[in-house]
Amino acid sequence: MTKKSKVIEKEEVVIRFSGDSGDGMQLTGTLFSDTAALYGNDIATFPDYPAEIRAPQGTVGGVSGFQVHLGRSEVNNPGDFADVLVAMNPAAIKANARWIKPGGTVIYDKDNFTEKNIEKAGYLKDPIAEEKLDSYNIIAAPVSSMVREALKDLGLDPKTVLRTKNMFALGMVFWLFDRKLKYTEQFFDKKFVKRPEVAQANKIALRAGYYYAETIEALTPVIRINPAPIASGKYRNICGNVATAWGLIAAAEKAGLKLFIGSYPITPATGILEELAARKELGVISFQAEDEIAGICSALGASFAGNLAVTSTSGPGLALKSEAIGLAVMAELPIVIIDVQRGGPSTGLPTKTEQTDLMQALYGRNGESPVVVIAASTPADCFSYAFHAAKIAVEHMTPVVLLTDSYLANGSEPWRIPEMKDLPTITPPYAGTDELPFLPYKRDREKLSRKWAVPGTQGLEHRIGGLEKTIKGTVSYIPENHELMVKLREDKVARVVNDIPDITVFGPETNDLLVVGWGGSYGYLITAVRELIAEGYNVSFINFNYINPLPANTRETFASFKKILVCELNTGQFTNYLRMKHQEFRYEQINKVQGLPFTVQEIKEKCIKILEEN
Amino acid sequence: MEPIQINQPTPKDFKSDQEVRWCPGCGDHAVLNAVQKALSELGIPREKFAFISGIGCSSRFPYYMNTYGFHGIHGRASAIASGVKIANPDLSVWQITGDGDALAIGGNHFIHVVRRNVDINIILFNNEIYGLTKGQYSPTSEKGIVTKTSPYGTIEEPFSVGELVVGAKGRFFARTLDSNVALSTQIYIEAARHKGTSVVEVLQNCVIFNDGIHEGVAGKEVRDDRTIILRHGEPMVFGKDGDKGLILDGLKLRVVKLGENGYNKNNILVHDVTEPNPGIHYMLANMRYPEYPVALGVIRSVPGPTYDEDVHNQIEDIRKTSKVKCVDDLLNSGSVWTVD
Q1: A7-224: CATH homologous superfamily?
Q2: A21, A362, B25, B224: which one has the fewest Cβ atoms less than 10 Å from its Cβ?
């Protein structure tokens, strides 16, 4: 390839690929981020797609986007605003104009800016002018006609030819950021091994885009983002749903248990079921049930029978599973319930992200029904929190709800691959046959958990169920027994605190302002706080992963700060939970319920405002 | 480890220490006895049995069995039992359910467990009423029945259990009477031995809220003439004097009198439980008095692949050829790079 004369180095860049949901933007973004990760950049990605598989072509509702943030230092979020927007049609401009950095670059497919498409997107005549983007670096490339020309000798049908438009655009972006095409070309060879002509077409389109950008000197100078100085080791890219699935498989292996997932497809959690269904080589039993309820009930049956039981869902499914979670609480069987949160209530915004299921996870059941609630904070650490959710469920004989969200589930980042030998052990509390008769609700003194007697074991035959019972498992309506059992179940969950880590503070441990987050908004919050600290503000940050129980040092940590600001993507669920648990503190709030993550900018502005108030 | 013993339990061994709390005279007592008798004849050790139930009078059943047992939530026993069996195929899994539990709130799970052919045995206590909630109509209550929630009579058609089982691609369906312990015991043994979902409908009497509901066909005085006990390979004969039989007349079953119009044991229908085509089984399961006798016994028992076996076969097949043998292999598979 030709040498590039003018190259400048930059710290970081954010690129957003955007087009019709049929334009292949998710693949384009993934290929770009994989290439960046292989090169050694730190990355974070954020797919943003509509709920409709193919919404009407050319409409704003049908726009599918994929944002990638890459840098030469730590990248914790996919970025607020894009340096480069690739827009395959006018609707993509409409949907994304507000997310382009002032003076940024817009690459668009000129051939697709027809009068009809412009009108469909809600513009009069000229989307660029109407969005006041004239002063930006605008690259109007005739993508459709270029691929038609480049592929004219291959004898492919026009539909297949036009499907390579996204690769032409990707080629252009590769040139702008001084990237190699090798990884993407290998990807085509593998993906289209049985259709070499399609692989060839995509490769030609990719190169055509690359050379086109070079020829028109689309962006001079070319921007280079050098590799990030990251810890040595083996890495891979991973998204939250796959990381969750793998964390569960790892836990099963560590515990010496078979993994059973009983589940039902639901956006955005389906990826977990799909991944586990594909992992038969590791003995995973996947059961796609007839509904959400059967998903968890089959898993509970498997738990009773001695498997590591899991069910995955999103908010509406969690609602359907609530009675069965209550059964797990009552029967004291281990199960991990994963809720990949999305916009609600009801069907809500199925493909968008929110943190609005916290109260449902904590309290959404009849009766006094405590469960452990854990939340993952990055796509990759879904692995670790899924692993620990399973460890706690098994070792404490309790249901555990693991909260992730749409943003974590679909977002991806490079992940330093752990070794199984370094992960903690998991010890199922099996009942022995040395102490007969077996009493199903006899408890461990320390944990208050009961023993697990696996059907098939001679001498341990017993009955459990959803009715209140005595230590023997005998049905009991005795008032004092019920109250005792309620308290024991509550205390059992509270004692999980002994097995979870203390919360750690990012920044000074005593300070003017403590920014508090939980779960998936971590990436934006830590970036905002890091920047604020660099700018000289007295701000620290903690992010909660263990919600119930809260870490043991929560109170003493809070006590070292003048102000506490809780940031979450709901109207204040965690804030109110903290108000209940630790009433002595005053909590300020930042809340956002738009189906979108925070922006670093909005967090910073609010923090500065609070610091300036007295 | 304890030494391995030859474990041949007796019916008594299956009785748990819990007091049986069904109403005196309830049909459930007889079912419990018949099941305990059947289990003792299967040659399966006690610890290999798991009884799973939902909610309702019959669903208390697991508490009275000295086996593994799980009393679940309303309607979900089919799903729980599926999980138990798939997770641990060595167990003999029994689902205890009723007409409300299985066919109303649990209807979805019921048809799907039957469709998948998970190797569990379902005993469906059909008393055509909600007993535990004190007398409301159920999905099997006859149209027009007056109950607490239908003071002017119901206006909906009931389900027929056999029809539903056949419609859901069921491979085993049998029907028995709570009071006929000998027949029931035999049927439970056959249900247990059938690989795949076995559904046994028990015409069960609720002595409090629907007393005598099956008496019209099952009463001592009339049952020989109003029921037929089907046996595989035998001609379909019934009646106090054994003088009635079933023939296929065009597209319909018809009752004929033996010794009249040339009908005798040699030209009436012979029962074949293994016939894959469900047509005749469907008709037999749907026979209603007074046009027909009500069919008892095993009506359909067609062997076929079971879900639980196929799950594990698929896993074994893929394990043989995959290079990924453990989680470390998985984590390092695909696109991986090293940072020095």
Answers
A1: Pyruvate-ferredoxin oxidoreductase, PFOR, domain III (3.40.920.10)
A2: B25
